[in-house]
C-alpha cells in the first residue's frame, strides 16, 4: 500500500482485523512504502492502535518516512505510537 488515505483505509482495517483476530502480542505496521498519509490515514492508525490495546496487543509502527513521518509528527502521534525507524528495530520490540 503506497498511500494511507480515505480510499485505502478500508483495506487497512480489513488487514488489521485479520491480524488482530489471532490476538498476537505485537503487531508491526510497516510504513516504509507508504509515501502519503492523510488525516484519514492517521485516524486509521489511531483506530488500529485503540483496537490493539483493547485486545492486549502492542502496535508498533516501523519505517515511516517523508510525508508519512511528517504527519505523524504534526499530529503528535509520534509521541503516542512511538514509531521506530525500520523493521529491524521493530523486531527488537517483539518478545522472544
Descriptive key words:
alpha/beta, two-stranded parallel ribbon, 4 strands, 15% strand, STAS_dom, STAS_dom_sf
How far apart, in Å, are the first and last alpha carbons? 29 Å
Low-confidence stretches: none
Shape: globular
Radius of gyration over all CA atoms, rounded: 12 Å
Order of helices and strands: EHEEHEHHH
Number of helices: 5
Question: Helical amount among residues, as a percent range?
Answer: 40-55%
Note the main sheet.
2 strands, parallel
Question: Tally of extended strands?
Answer: 4
Give the averaged pLDDT, no decimals: 87
What structural class do helix, strand and pairing data support?
alpha/beta
Q: Strand order, biggest sheet? A: 1-3
The proportion of strand residues reads 5-15%
Description:
- The protein is about 50% helix and about 15% strand.
- It contains five helices and four strands.
- The chain has helices at about 10-20, 40-55, 65-75, 75-80, 85-90; strands at about 5, 25-30, 35, 60.
- The protein has a two-stranded parallel ribbon. Strands 2-4 form a two-stranded parallel sheet.
- The longest helix is centred in the middle third of the chain and has 16 residues, at about 40-55.
- The mean pLDDT is about 85.
Amino acid at each position: 500500500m503506497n498511500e494511507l488515505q480515505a480510499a485505502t483505509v478500508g483495506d487497512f482495517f480489513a488487514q488489521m482485523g485479520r491480524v488482530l483476530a489471532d490476538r498476537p502480542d505485537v503487531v508491526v505496521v510497516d510504513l516504509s512504502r507508504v509515501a502519503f498519509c492523510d488525516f484519514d490515514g492517521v485516524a486509521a492508525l489511531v483506530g488500529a492502535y485503540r483496537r490493539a490495546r483493547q485486545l492486549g496487543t502492542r502496535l508498533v509502527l516501523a519505517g515511516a518516512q517523508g510525508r508519512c513521518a511528517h504527519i505523524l509528527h504534526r499530529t503528535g502521534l509520534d509521541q503516542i505510537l512511538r514509531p521506530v525507524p525500520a523493521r529491524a528495530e521493530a523486531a527488537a520490540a517483539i518478545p522472544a
